[in-house]
Specification:
This protein is α+β, with helices and mostly antiparallel strands and 180 residues long. The chain has helices at 2-12, 44-49, 56-75, 126-129, 136-152, 162-171, and strands spanning 22-28, 31-36, 42-43, 78-79, 88-90, 96-98, 105-106. The radius of gyration is 16 Å and the shape is globular. 32% of the residues are buried.
Length: 180
Amino acid sequence: KERLTREAKAAGNLSHPNIVTIYDVGLQGNLQYIAMEYIEGYTLEAVLKRNLQLNYRILASVIIQTCSALEYAHKMGIVHRDIKPANIMVMDGFKVKVMDFGIAHFESSSMTQTGVAMGTPNYISPEQLKGKEVSPSSDIFSLGVVLYEMLTHRRPFTGENISALVYKILNEEPTPASTI
């Protein structure tokens, strides 16, 4: 319930063409709800699973739009902390909407805490893994992982288990995308 409220608070304060619009959040009996913009399209994760060879203009457009959304959120004092293909919606004409601000960090809030790693392991930034303070660079790192995956059709960091994955993110450089 707290995360749903947090997402509504974060995204509800954001008005940007590349961020999903939140209309309402409330409680009906024992059920809490969030009413948001209906989006016809696919997650970037679903697009990537189709293994399509997207041209560089499309890739650049998706990244630029996502950067625009993140720049706006960062100016509003919000760090998303969970940028990944599943949280980027792609609509007709490759228009993009960033969604799911459920674990966002607010500069003005003490709800999120330092020392707790939150996010999706394959895309999480080193400072998050170390439990350090997040900043806009945390989202930029995660978006870099997304771009790498878009270009190469593989993730830059992989491991047999979570410990191996964390080790690689913290200690190893990925194979340059240009060599793949």
